[in-house]
Amino acid sequence: MSASSDYHIKDLTLAPQGVLRIEWADMQMPVLASIRARFAKEQPLKGVRVGACLHVTTETANLMRTLKAGGADIVLCASNPLSTQDDVAAALVRDYDVRVYAIKGEDEQTYYSHVNACVDHRPNITMDDGADVIGVLHGERPDMASDIIGGTEETTTGVIRLRALEREGRLLFPVVAVNDANTKHLFDNRYGTGQSTLDGVIRATNMLIAGSICCVAGYGWCGRGLAMRLKGHGADVIVLEVDPLRALEAVMDGFRVMPMAAAARVARLFVTATGDINVIRKEHFEVMQDGAIVANTGHFNVEIDIPALAALSVKRRKMREYVEEFTLADGRRIYLLAEGRLVNLAAAEGHPASVMDMSFANQSLSAEYLVEHHAELQNRVYGVPKEIDDEIARLKLATMNVDCDTLTPEQAAYLASWDQGT
Ligand SMILES: NC(=O)c1ccc[n+]([C@@H]2O[C@H](COP(=O)([O-])OP(=O)(O)OC[C@H]3O[C@@H](n4cnc5c(N)ncnc54)[C@H](O)[C@@H]3O)[C@@H](O)[C@H]2O)c1
Fold first, then answer.
1. 275 in the Ramachandran plot: left (φ > 0), alpha (ψ -120 to 50) or beta?
2. If you measure from the C-alpha of residue 272 to the centroid of ligand 1, how many angstroms do you get, rounded to a whole number?
3. Tens digit of each residue's pLDDT, the chain (422 residues)
4. What is the CA(10)–ligand 1 centre distance, in A?
5. Is 218 in the pocket of ligand 1 (CB under 6 A)?
């Protein structure tokens, strides 16, 4: 354990490997790098204290470098007890002068002591992935919110929690829902979660996806991405939904749709991506086949009812890293991956850097936006301004050497005119 009053991480000597991996990710994050170069010149975040609670990964490290280049004074803690990359945490402390409080596998008490370290920083801007810092600020420690000009939120589940606070009139400052930017959820949730969740399942189990019956719960952005990638690997994919429109979309996309009660009897792999609670529960475990594998890629570890699985079991053992075997009374075995936490971050490396390039470009520009516009904002949840979203798409296309058309003046006038078609 490496600790001082300025950081709490696993091991400072892991830093050299972290630096190499951060640089590797940086090579695939050209949009963020271009923002960093501008921030270094313009210093838009000069003296701004940022309290960031994000997955401590190589991509997040490059976001921290960008905010720091812009002049920010940052404390970073983990947004999930299992997603921290300890070498990255070490590199951030030793080589990039960022205060980090995050250790992979930390217990709940340590996790919240780290979130509180972020709050102790008296942030001007909060940067959350799942609303944990904002949760503490609105719960136990509202007195620490006085210097805050605004916050940003990275993920669907966090945005849902914040909209609930807003509806109740309890939100203490404006928040930008980074997740809702098109250049975020259309790409990160779909292609990032799709690929990295499959990566996590394969790294943990080494199972052959081709020919396996795989069940994806939730056909939102994450679920769509995962179902698409499983199909590409030759799986027979079943989709579960509660929203009839999305269920219909899944059918039209060529997937079988059925209730969990039916899917539980036939599938080999189950992955939840709903943001909902107890999607896989007692009655489902009771009918699963011997060898069924259950995993979650939604934000919280509540989608699989693990206490129910534990109560049904007569024996538990760790089979491999991130694979726990539960033996039921009749001898059937069910395998839980990564303690039911985000399997793509726990058992693999999370989203590829290239897709986080856009998500974190949104984070950086949203922080700058908050500094410039906070006086005009109310205590509400705001979308990322369209100009920022469009600019990020343009920059990303340019870095991919892809050119797209623009409207001719005649076309622009035609599309803007009421008289069109006459
Ligand atoms: N693993 C990651 O790295 C990662 C990345 C982005 C988002 N997330 C998280 O993944 C979750 C899903 O995000 P999203 O952007 O796809 O959300 P979304 O709102 O687009 O999709 C969720 C879908 O789940 C469905 N659903 C809800 N309850 C259900 C139930 N009981 N059974 C079946 N379907 C149900 C909803 O109808 C919806 O279509 C959230 O918790 C989000 O925070 C994880």
1. left
2. 8
3. 777 779 999 999 999 999 999 999 999 999 999 999 999 999 999 999 999 999 999 999 999 999 999 999 999 999 999 999 999 999 999 999 999 999 999 999 999 999 999 999 999 999 999 999 999 999 999 999 999 999 999 999 999 999 999 999 999 999 999 999 999 999 999 999 999 999 999 999 999 999 999 999 999 999 999 999 999 999 999 999 999 999 999 999 999 999 999 999 999 999 999 999 999 999 999 999 999 999 999 999 999 999 999 999 999 999 999 999 999 999 999 999 999 999 999 999 899 999 999 999 999 999 999 999 999 999 999 999 999 999 999 999 999 999 999 999 999 999 999 877 65
4. 31
5. yes
Hey, what are 132's tokens? Answer: 């944990």
Angle CA(372)–CA(375)–CA(378) in degrees, nearest 5? Answer: 120
DSSP conformation letters of 300-314: STTSB-HHHHHHHEE
**231 CB within 6 A, ligand 1:** no
Q: Is 180 touching ligand 1 by the criterion CB < 6 Å? A: no
Is any atom of ligand 1 closer than 6 Å to the C-beta of 226?
no
Cα angle 307, 312, 315; round to 5: 100
| Atom in ligand 1 nearest the alpha carbon of residue 344 | 1
Q: Whose CA is nearest to atom 6 of ligand 1?
A: 189
Ligand 1 probe mutation, 155, 196, 238, most atoms within 8 A of CB = 155
Cβ–ligand 1 distance for 223 under 6 Å, the answer: yes
Place of tokens 């009749």: 330
**Is the CB of residue 342 below 6 angstroms from any atom belonging to ligand 1?**
yes
Q: Which residues pair with 106 in a beta bridge?
A: none
